[in-house]
Amino acid sequence: MSGNGPEHAKPTIGITMGDPAGIGPEIVVKALADQRILDLGRFVIYGLNELLAYAADQLEIDPCWYRVQHDSPRTNRPISENVVVLDFDEFDGFISSPRWPSKPGGVASKAFVEEAIADAKRDRDHPRRLDCLVTGPICKQAWHMAGYNWPGHTELLAHRTRAKRHAMMFVSPRLRVILATAHVPLNNIRDVLTIGKVFDAIDLGHEACQELGVENPAIAVAGLNPHAGEGGFLGDEEQRLIEPAIRMAREAGINVKGPLAADTLFIEAAAGTYDLVVAMYHDQGLIPVKLLGWNAAANWTVGLPIVRTSPDHGTAINIAGTNSANEGSIRTAIELAARLAAGRMSAAVTGSRGR
User: Fold this and answer.
1) CA 20 to 30 Å from 179, out of 19, 93, 300, 302?
2) Which residues have C-beta within 8 Å of that of residue 348, sequence separation ≥ 6?
3) Helices (DSSP H) in the chain: which residue ranges?
4) Are 133 and 16 in contact, with CB atoms under 8 Å apart?
């Protein structure tokens, strides 16, 4: 589709539309209506042209894309248009469908993602090669209804790219947060959390901050329990799991502090004391990120061999089709993906150290 090699300044950015019943079509159309976003690179959208065109009509936005059937032989040759929709029209019919999680929606959204991942893994000189991937929100219930047991994008991407280590990192104007565990029921955190998971989050977060331009990031690690365990009185995970991981990270030369009580740690991080917070579980990290950076935060899956970002919200099926969705988070995800991809492309050209 692009033939985009590392010598080019702007990346080819893949965007998956997300669940057809959600706000994915609307936020993608809104984001691409901004010339400042279009100037970041060349775009390949994986989804349903029918829904994207419908959203554009509802929003009174002129479509800016060129449609190609996703499995057409034409996709294996260079296509010059700046925005291309790879249309999965075998899944059409969602415009008249009820707005709720469904098996067809799960099948369709999974197909978008799988093809985009395959294209992101291609050789640099392949016409379908993506330099980065931005995934629209999926409905995990719909994936489950379709028979897919992946907890989310993150785990699927790690498996498909054979990433040995990976973590969810959230980037926003006031906070950067990385998770030691991700899509795990709260009751199971105690059984899943290990020294290795905490260390990996610290180490991957350190590398990610450096890629963002923070040479020696100050990293704070949250405790799992109230008051970071209160010396073992409120739980011993801090002493058994978190402190050993922090010692390992310090021995590796990482500037890290903790474990710290999460209820005050995020106040200090938001004030600029720390460049990154390592949270022990999903909501511990996501609540402050969304509270302080709603519509301005993006998720970055660190540790993958490809660049993947996403908005920090879900499908919002309850407001889908009302033209009231805010595209701020997917804009941030696109901007972050383009920045990371451009940096890695430049590193590939110069031979400098890149991830």
Assistant:
1) 19
2) 6, 124, 354
3) 24-32, 35-38, 49-59, 103-120, 140-145, 153-160, 189-192, 195-211, 237, 243-251, 262-270, 282-293, 328-350
4) yes
Per-residue pLDDT at 299 exceeds 60: yes
Residue 1 pLDDT grade (very low, low, confident, very high; cuts 50, 70, 90): low
CA atoms within a 13 Å half-sphere pointing along the CA-CB vector of 234: 9
Q: Which token pair is 220?
A: 């704070």
Quick: pLDDT tens for 175-204. 999 999 998 999 999 899 999 999 999 999
All structural domains of the chain, each given as residue ranges with its CATH number in brackets, are: 1-163+304-355 (3.40.718.10), 169-296 (3.40.718.10)
The crossing angle, in degrees rounded to 10, of helices 153-160 and 103-120 is 40
> Quick one: DSSP state of residue 323?
T
Report the C-alpha gap between 186 and 214 in whole angstroms: 32
Question: 32-86: per-residue pLDDT in tens?
Answer: 999 999 999 999 999 999 999 999 999 999 999 999 999 999 998 888 899 999 9
SS3 of residue 83 by DSSP: strand
Task: Report residue 177: phi and psi, to 5°.
Answer: -135, 135
Neighbours of 273 (CB within 10 A): 12
| Cα 197 to Cα 292: distance, rounded to the nearest angstrom | 26
Q: What global pTM score does this model have?
A: 0.93
